[in-house]
Amino acid sequence: MQREEGAPKRFWARHKTQAVLRQLRGEDIDLVSRELGVTAATLSQWRDTFLEAGEWVSSRYRQGNPLKSAGSGRKSASRPWKTSCFARR
Known about the structure:
This protein is elongated. It has one domain. The relative contact order is 0.15. 48% of the residues lie in helices and 0% in strands. The protein has 89 residues and is mainly alpha-helical. The chain is built from three helices and no strands. The longest helix is centred in the middle third of the chain and has 23 residues, at 40-62.
């Protein structure tokens, strides 16, 4: 598959989030993938990572300590979006 003209070679977290939200709102994954010039598998990976990050944040809020790891007082290094396809590199 060739990249659509004008499609970026690299996607930042904001662009990936927008693409995932389009999918979650019901847009066809094939349409979104063609517009962005990426495969449907790539979009599915972005969606899965996005949802995992949301689950992680939700679980931290249920524990009553959303962004701090136990005892360290520093932000947790185990945040899934820091090592995922959403992380800036």
